[in-house]
Amino acid sequence: MDSHTTPQRVRTLTPYTLTLYGTVINDSSKKVELPMRATPLPAAIDEEGYLIEPNEWTEEIALELARYEQIELTDMHWSAIRFMRDYYAEHQIAPDARFVIRYLAAKHGAERNALFQLFPYGYVKQACKIAGMKRPRAWSTG
């Protein structure tokens, strides 16, 4: 690494980064009890909790990230996440929220606001994170 390169801050998704003695302090500073994981997840995340390498994503990682976001993944969540993963595999970029909204409407007859009911703290903050996308830099996390 040369003197002009800034090292990227990385942390590994482990029980300690998600929980401290089984307690998570989320964005609104509410304490939420979560069970501890016996083993760390095999993926590096950035300081905001997004995967550094989206290709390291697994459904196990999605479940852990969803649990951290206090979301119980339903079939509709998985449908949106799998669409996002397929889109990413084809285009190497996270899909715009409007594409996911259209997909949910076509596949499930979902209403326009269904995506935001599934991920109430925002498409980027929750859906992209759980689906293993890098944080889209041009979008606000809400």
Describe the structure.
By secondary structure, the chain is mostly helical. The protein is 39% helix and 7% strand. The protein has helices spanning 15-18, 59-68, 75-91, 97-108, 114-118, 123-130, and strands at 11-12, 23-25, 31-33, 44-45. It has a two-stranded antiparallel ribbon with strand order 1-4. Strands 2-3 form a two-stranded antiparallel ribbon. β2 and β3 (31-33) form a beta hairpin. The longest helix is centred in the middle third of the chain and has 17 residues, at 75-91. It is globular and about 35 Å long.
Specify the number of helices. Answer: 6
Shape: globular
Strand numbers in spatial order across the main sheet: 1-4
Q: For the CA atoms, what is the radius of gyration?
A: 16 Å
Output mean pLDDT. Answer: 77
Helix content: 25-40%
Order of helices and strands: EHEEEHHHHH
